[in-house]
Write a structure and sequence with these properties.
The chain is α/β, with parallel strands linked by helices. It has helices spanning 5-8, 10-15, 17-20, 23-32, 47-54, 101-111, 126-135, 145-154, 171-176, 182-191; strands at 37-41, 58-63, 72-73, 86-92, 112-121, 157-170, 200-212.
């Protein structure tokens, strides 16, 4: 019986418009082009894995939620693969949920032979962080771009490129994915009022292309 919240949300993440597509996903595919194999960490609805397979890569997907139907069920902080198993390790829209993001990045660096591609929203304000936690208690924290760069450096990864984007999320589908409603949803809207038009809110994210140092 499925009991963890991420497994229960799986169908919503497989069909979510903001997860299915986007310039960030196109960029990950572009940067991974020509590689032989890849690991998709915290695959969620499997969109990175799907697109990389379509691009001709052999892909292993990993996720701690069995209901997401990954190839391997595991946490990002404990990847069960030998050192240097993959040409590319990618992680999209997930790092802010990791209990120990530094440990997760260390694991991604360990199992990569070269590239580590990370996409995540970046820190904006304490109000946005509070809103994120209210809407989804599994949210841990967003890092700033500087915080990410410091982590990459600490784990022996050199950032080759970083691209910033903005995304507009409509409140209705965003709330539906986590079952946020009532007074909690109203409080989230209040916290995000300066970033919203009443129907959608805007948040920034960044995609990093980093390479292991020799």
């Amino acid at each position: 019986m499925i009991s963890d919240p991420w497994s229960e949300r799986a169908a919503l993440y497989r069909t979510s418009a903001v997860h299915l597509d986007g310039p960030d996903l196109d960029l990950i595919v572009e940067w991974a082009s020509g590689a032989g194999n890849a690991l998709d960490v915290a695959t969620g609805g499997g969109h990175v894995a799907r697109r990389l397979r379509e691009a001709g890569l052999a892909v292993v997907s990993a996720d701690p939620a069995a209901g997401m139907e990954p190839d391997v069920v595991c946490a990002a902080e404990a990847l069960p693969f030998p050192d240097g198993s993959f040409d590319v390790v990618a992680c999209r829209r997930a790092a802010h949920h990791f209990a120990d993001v530094s440990r997760a990045l260390a694991e991604m660096a360990r199992v990569s032979r070269g590239l580590v591609l990370i996409q995540d929203a970046i820190w904006v304000s304490d109000e946005v962080e509070e809103a994120e936690r209210l809407r989804d208690p599994s949210h841990v924290a967003h890092l700033s771009e500087r915080g990410w760069r410091e982590l990459f450096d600490h784990h022996g990864l050199e950032v080759e490129q970083a691209r910033k984007f903005e995304e507009r999320l409509d409140f209705a589908s965003w709330f539906a994915r986590t079952g946020c409603e009532g007074e909690t949803a109203a409080r989230v809207r209040t916290l995000l009022a300066d970033r919203s038009d009443g129907q959608r809110w805007v948040y920034p994210y960044v995609v990093f292309r980093a390479r292991k140092r020799c």
